[in-house]
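QA checklist item 7 of 12: single-chain prediction sanity check.
[x] sequence parsed
[x] length recorded as 152
[x] structure emitted
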Amino acid sequence: MQLFKTFWCEDNIGDFKKEIKLIKNHCKRHQRAFEFDHYDFYPEELTEELFTGQYSLMLIDLNLKNEQKGTEVIEIIRNYGAYVDVLLYSNNPKELYKVTQEENYVEGVFIHAGLKGLGQKIRDVIDQIMYKENMAIHRNETYLNSKEGDSK
């Protein structure tokens, strides 16, 4: 079974036990094993780890421990060259929308306001990522097969 690994910055991960189980089951139906590395905030020593391409998705809460903002985490990740799908969420919709309208907001990020429906949004983003991965695999296989045909 192929791995779907996620980087998850959330200071109240215990609130997501039910959702994590649903996400694991969802991935399992798609022949993927869901695993995540959890952090209450972004520790600087992870910088090099993000370059390895080991994560398919990053889930980031807007308000983290140590007064750190999720947007800061996204900026750090992007500055180190890790271009991976990100879902930024918050239980404070007004603050989330305000932050995403600011001039320096990092683009190319899925957002979700409120905790209601967050689990479904995570599963939808996972589906989109798996679709893109499958399309890339199919495109590569088609290319390799055409090259084999050219050499005959």
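[x] summary fact logged: The chain has a mean pLDDT of 86.
[ ] second reviewer sign-off
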